[in-house]
Amino acid sequence: MAQGMLTGKTVVLGVTGGIAAYKAADLASRLIKLGAQVYAVMTRNACAFLAPLTLETLTNHPVAVDLFARPATWEVEHIALAKRADLFVVAPATANLLGKLACGIADDMLTTTLLATRAPVLVAPAMNTGMWQNEAVWQNVRTLQARGVGIVPPESGRLACGDEGEGRLAAVETIVRRVCDTLSAWQDLAGRRVLVTAGPTREPLDPVRCLTNRSSGKMGYALAQAAAARGAQVLLLSGPVALPPPPGIETLGFETTGQLFDLMLTHAPRHDLVLQAAAPADFQAEQVEPQKIKKQGGEGLTLRLSQTPDIAAAVGQTKRPGQILVAFAAETGDVEAHAREKLVRKNADLIVANDVTQPGAGFDADTNIATLITRNKAVPLPQMTKRELADKILDAALGLL
After folding, report:
1. Are residues 110 and 16 in contact, defined by beta-carbon separation less than 8 angstroms?
2. Mean model confidence pLDDT for the chain
3. Closest by alpha carbon to 77, among 28, 171, 162, 12?
4. How sure is the predictor about 72, in pLDDT bands with cuts at 50, 70 and 90?
5. What secondary structure, in 3-state letters, does the chain show?
């Protein structure tokens, strides 16, 4: 890690009430030596283990503890810190902090600032082995990972209570390396325009019923958030999903494949990177009934369907030199063969292929198992959260750009 590599970056360091809080001083010192501006936020319990004066002396900035203290400058302090951060690091993070952050609880300066920030968040847990292995804690960790929060897992060793096992705060050097990796990757899409599609379509049959699929939109939303975190100007085209619009990202909605097709033809030409993660229907009703279709004495129902427009192929045929198209192939067999055929047919640059019958890789899951396929190679990836996969996809797309 070269001296000065974090010059111009601002790190907000959160410290919670665990015995490992004393290591936050070493962490702050190392980040400052690398050129970062560091601002510290401590919980009241953290102050029992580490004096705020220590971090104030190291960082040359006041330490924020009390949410209702009169600020030294006329600004709302937790909002000012949230906006100032290029990266928010919590080290150590107690089980209590993990639970609050997972549930969106904001009852002190640290949790309030964490909820307000749009910067990437990196959390380094530290606690007793029994606590770390508790299913409730792991559920909170999985929730945070699915939202894109980076986790620096604790190490094994002798704990303050005398136990041996997992739970000890990761080495300060490990945390510093994760900070550097996160900040160096964060701006690698700066100046790029990225278009992401997400979610299913709904093709109406009558005023009540529709043809749709199981897409949750989670993969597309993870891609949009990851691209924005890495400095891109992102436009998200979203189908009907049960996800809140990601903050700070321009989002346009669509219902049918035809609507998505029109939006793509309008907006895709202006973007450097197009990520077609939505799952548009392949077929639509030839005729939409004006009234609800009723049962007719036990008789079956025959629907006449016609093909919908091929959105990815249309974008692939009209893409300009230097523009990258990433398409997705959710398959149930012969995954790589189908993906390679789609790569050629749609004139895509990268296909993200997965077998949706695999556990942990299907629709509506928080994880995925995918293979990244280009014309030259196929890179299989293990199961990971969709946010982690989003960064892998962006890394591959950047290599093509």
Report:
1. yes
2. 90
3. 12
4. low
5. CCCCCCCCCEEEEEECCCHHHHHHHHHHHHHHHCCCEEEEEECCCHHHCCCHHHHHHHHCCCCECCCCCCCCCCCCHHHHHHHHCCEEEEEEECHHHHHHHHHCCCCCHHHHHHHHCCCCEEEEECCCHHHHCCHHHHHHHHHHHHCCCEECCCEEEECCCCCEEEEECCCHHHHHHHHHHHHHHHCCCCCCEEEEEECECCEECCCCCEECCCCCCHHHHHHHHHHHHCCCEEEEEECCCCCCCCCCCEEEECCCHHHHHHHHHHHHHHCCEEEECCECCCEEECCCCCCCCCCCCCCCCCCCEEECCCHHHHHHHHCCCCCEEEEEEEECCCHHHHHHHHHHHCCCCEEEEEECCCCCCCCCCCEECCEEECCCCEEECCCEEHHHHHHHHHHHHHHHC
CB 387 within 8 A of CB 145: yes
Sequence letter at residue 119: A
- The mean pLDDT value for 261-278 works out to 97
Task: Say what the alpha-carbon torsion angle 123, 129, 134, 138 is, to the nearest 10 degrees.
Answer: 30
Task: State which amino acid sits at residue 62.
Answer: P
Give the tens place of pLDDT for each residue, 125-153: 999 999 999 999 999 999 998 888 999 99
Q: Are 336 and 329 in contact (CB under 8 A)?
A: no
47 is an active site residue = no
76 pLDDT more than 50? no
**Which residue among the candidates 47, 103, 161, 210 is catalytic per the annotation?**
161
The CA distance from 21 to 336, in Å, is: 48
Domains in the chain (CATH in brackets) are: 10-186 (3.40.50.1950), 193-282+307-400 (3.40.50.10300)
